Amino acid sequence: MKSYVTGFPRIGEQRELKKALESYWAGKCDYDALERVAAELKDRHIKYQLDAWSGLISVNDFSYYDLMLDTSILFGVIPQRFAALSAHEQYFAMARGSKDAVAMEMTKWFNTNYHYIVPEISAYTEFSLNPSKILSEYKAAKNNDFKDSCALKINLIGPITYLALSKSSDKSDPLAHLDALVAKYEELLKLLSELDNEVVIQIDEPIFVTDRAAELAPKIEPVYHRLSKAASNVKIIFMTYFEHATEAVREIVKTDVWAIGLDFVYASEENIKKELQILKDAKTVLFTGVIDGRNIWKSDIDKKLAQLKAIEAYVPKERIYVGTSCSLLHVPFTLKYEDKLSTEIKSWLSFAVEKLSEISILTHLFFEIPMCEHGMKAYEENQKSAKTRASSPLIHDERVQSRAANLNKFERADRYEDRIKVQKKELGYGILPTTTIGSFPQTAELRQVRNAYKKGLIGREAYERDIKAYIDDCVKFQDEIGLDVLVHGEPERNDMVEYFGEQMSGYAFSANGWVQSYGSRCVKPPLLFGDVSRPRPMTVEWIKYAQSRTKKIMKGMLTGPVTMMNWSFVRDDKPRDQIVKQLALAIFDEISDLQDAGIKIVQVDEAAFKEGYPLRSENIPAYEKFAVSAFKLAVSAASAHTQIHTHMCYSEFNDIIKTIEAMDADVISIETARSGNELLRVFKSVGYKQEVGPGVYDIHSPRIPSVQELVSQIRALLEVLPKEQLWINPDCGLKTRKWEEVRPSLKNMVEAVRIIRTEA
Ligand code: GLN
Ligand code: ZN
């Protein structure tokens, strides 16, 4: 059968790998025990695929931490500071740091929430081949009962993507090493070719779905010409995902590479057509990624079948394989443990294991392979659930739809210049007002209280008492050290998206829908399945209470519509601009209620605003348009007297500064502590007019900044922006820090401002 998945999740259906890793790191088990868990998981994951089909089964999609890191080990790209460590220590030290060496950098994998370990390359980097992991995984996989020898597919990250995603430690160009690295890939392919009569190797080159595609495309032909000649019994799949790869398709068809893998879910129809047009006259086999590897909805098999038939007009059946749009790493493992979800919603979902069976059904139907009774039944159920979902009253809320369709106000009535005058006067703050980003330390006791309440072990009254006690402490502390604008500390929130999602209709929550974010760290994104609204206030009681405990101004704290969307699994039956609009209206209602309750400042966090940017610049204008409109719509609830703050993480704003300005918040706080003043200069150079709170210290580290250090940091800020435009705050929420760190740090921050103010 010509079925495949680009890759399978590795964390384990009950996060077995996470648990094993963390216990190994804590010294509670030895390496052998960790290896045993890994072996069992790899075996189980292969069996899941074998159960579903007799197509291609992925090998080397497993990793203890990350596949880019594994690739660095594979080619001996080990930074000097880890050189002396033993192999096992070295691997985890590169990922997590050791007592003598800082960890390698980690960054987002394209536009997903998965993070990879960034390779470090210098002009002197030399490569050496260390293929033991792949060889042993292949051999272990072979122990399974295969129907023929060509059932395995070995996954590798490609040389161009690997180097393009590397960072240079000496300003030399990592891609200057391409020839040398390709020589090692040739050696590797030769070695792998000895494993079987015929060996299928998937080489991932997702860099070709980004804006760098045009610049890098000329490298494809020479590199893949060499690789396709490395061994005569090796079949190479040039794999791409997340977007179209038109430039790469154009190059690959010039080579003898056996197959190309394309994303048929996230590329636009127009680009897909272009790709197919190029493939039409070629002989390249097509790995057709029609099953969504990034979202959790059941595929409508009939629709997918129609899509495959349309593709057949360009590429004949003989040249088609059927599979996922990308690795299933980006979706949760299985629905098996979801016994709390409503049966109706559950019947619409498909996690990694369930997607395997979708691929199987689709392959049977498309290639007209007779299906067993079990398969037929699954197909019928699929068609039924596609219908019930489309017409379910759970999804459709007439009120929400007509409200969104009949809006007549989209932004705040007053201009910023007029609002800020009113606010400065009414809020009465002078120069360099001090504040924080919202959360205070999430202590173990706090988590316990929330858990106990959730499980029904304590009642509402006890819960409220404990949360209020925490708010009291936060407020008292902030009052004592003399901060200007206070926060309640967010003790009632487990997560900035989940907390709001849980209170909105249209959202559901899985019990076990974990997705790997980095290393052993997993996230469980909420499921936005229907029209979204906010039946009742979500934060007002807490904020009102906090305000009642102080004479200072209490800032209300909300998560913005764009972040709510970007950190959820969202419905695929409605365009994103409409989904985000509904979220914006829900936040609008909350801002109105906070305002009516006498709250003078509301912060609308957009931590994931930058994260949602498309991979191809051609799609950026559309994203910016709906993201900015959604934010403006949400905050249009605020009168001129209410000050709107926003907060964004990450410091790479240079290219989007005008967009941020267009969001029209009165004050934005941003992460600058690690990037120095460069970013601020950008604010200045574009004549950014709203107020800015550049983080004055890095909350990601336990270090306590001294008064002196903070004074010089603030002075540096003042060299770039006028004192009337600046707020002083840490660079993100404090929830991951300890009180022992937070108390002195904030105290020093306020003291530093006091010193500067006396000079000014
Ligand atoms: N208000 C949130 C907090 O302080 C913001 C978190 C974030 O930006 N990631 O925790
Ligand atoms: Zn932040």
TrEMBL record:
The catalytic site is made up of: H700
Q: Where does L-methionine bind?
A: I437, G438, S439, E490, D605
Q: Which residues bind Zn(2+) 1?
A: H647, C649, E671, C732
Q: Which reaction does it catalyse?
A: 5-methyltetrahydropteroyltri-L-glutamate + L-homocysteine = tetrahydropteroyltri-L-glutamate + L-methionine
Quote the record's binding site residues for L-homocysteine: I437, G438, S439, E490, D605
Keywords, alphabetical: Amino-acid biosynthesis, Metal-binding, Methionine biosynthesis, Methyltransferase, Repeat, Transferase, Zinc
**MF-aspect GO terms:** 5-methyltetrahydropteroyltriglutamate-homocysteine S-methyltransferase activity; zinc ion binding
Which parts of the sequence belong to the Cobalamin-independent methionine synthase MetE N-terminal domain?
A: 3-314
Co-factor requirement: Zn(2+)
Manner of cofactor binding, per the entry note: Binds 1 zinc ion per subunit.
Per its UniProt record, what CDD domains does this chain match?
A: CIMS_C_terminal_like, CIMS_N_terminal_like
Q: Which InterPro entries match?
A: Cbl-indep_Met_Synth_N, Cobalamin-indep_Met_synthase, Met_Synth_C/arc, UROD/MetE-like_sf
Q: Which NCBIfam families match?
A: met_syn_B12ind, PRK05222.1
Summarizing the function annotation, the protein's role is: Catalyzes the transfer of a methyl group from 5-methyltetrahydrofolate to homocysteine resulting in methionine formation.
Q: What is this protein called?
A: 5-methyltetrahydropteroyltriglutamate--homocysteine methyltransferase
Specify the species.
Campylobacter gracilis RM3268
Which gene is the coding source of this polypeptide chain? Answer: metE
